[in-house]
Design a protein that fits this description.
CATH class: Alpha Beta
Strand content: 15-25%
Distance between the termini: 47 Å
Oligomer: single chain
Helix content: 40-55%
Largest sheet: 6 strands, mixed
Strand order of the largest sheet: 6-7-8-3-9-10
Bound molecules: adenosine-5'-diphosphate
């Protein structure tokens, strides 16, 4: 499966200038994608366009060659194929308990109760949430809330998982657990695209990295290709991963 974004433009209602400007990129199945760029470069806006929450003012989004339509039915199908996990789990969690929160999306899709029960039980187990099934969502830790927000999306079995800053504000243990969870999701066949400032993580994890600047893709390539472009990264005010810095300083000395 391929998702193509062709010459996408998006301008917020209160803004004079497009936030996403002539952006083109392709996502292929079976890959781990990183999206990096400074604050305000348009990463979150792009993820919301990719998930169908926002509609481009110009340009086309295609899945396997077929343009995305914005009628209710097409969007419902799109949300199932392309899931988005927000940076702030509070924006995503809607129900009182963990179990109710997991069933919410499936109920909205009109899935029969028996299947909902089965899928909730499997997802609770996969995401290590079984013991918290009846726990109030409000009292979960941030790490648990992020885990539940990902589980809420994965229960719909999307082909592509988009995540906005998934490691932000996590402590090292929670970060490690989340990375392990993402690896498991990827191994089970879901393509992942995540926006992050965690360059050390993305350098080691991603197959392909997109660098955003002022609403466009300024650079893309394998982690090695991207982080070799030191002059361009400096112009974009982006750092390089610690691992590469250490390697360079050993060679220089
Ligand atoms: P990033 O995720 O890379 O930090 P965003 O997509 O959040 O970038 O923001 C890109 C630009 O769009 C910023 O200048 C931001 O202020 C603006 N922006 C984001 N959300 C809104 C909004 N709801 N209304 C108006 N402008 C917005």
């Amino acid at each position: 499966m391929i998702i193509e974004f062709e010459k996408i433009f998006y301008t917020y209602a209160c803004s004079q200038k497009p936030t996403i400007e002539n952006l083109s990129l392709q996502l292929h199945g079976g890959k781990r994608y990183g999206l990096i760029g400074n604050n305000g470069s348009g990463k979150t806006t792009f993820l919301r366009l990719a998930n169908g929450l926002y509609r481009p003012h110009h340009g086309l989004i295609r899945i396997s060659g077929k343009p995305l339509n914005y009628d209710r039915q097409s969007l419902k199908e799109w949300y199932q194929q392309v899931g988005l996990v927000f940076q702030d789990p509070e924006q995503q969690l809607v129900a009182t308990t963990v179990e109710e929160d997991l069933s919410y999306g499936l109920c909205n899709l009109g899935i029969p109760n028996i299947e909902i029960e089965q899928r909730v039980a499997i997802t609770l187990k996969d995401f290590n949430l079984t013991e918290l099934a009846h726990f109030p969502v409000n009292y979960l830790s941030l790490g648990q809330k992020k885990r539940l927000a990902i589980a809420d999306v994965m229960i719909l079995k999307p082909k592509i998982l988009l995540l906005d800053e998934p490691t932000a504000y996590l402590d090292p243990k929670q970060r490690k657990e989340l990375i392990k969870q993402l690896e498991q999701i990827f191994k089970e066949g879901t393509t992942i695209l995540l926006a992050t400032h965690d360059l050390d993580f993305i350098y080691r994890w991603a197959d392909w990295i997109f660098v955003m600047d002022r609403g466009k893709i300024a650079l893309e390539g394998t982690p090695k290709q991207v982080f070799e472009q030191k002059i361009l990264l400096e112009q974009l005010d982006l750092d390089i991963p610690l691992e590469l810095k250490l390697r360079t300083s050993i060679i220089d000395n």
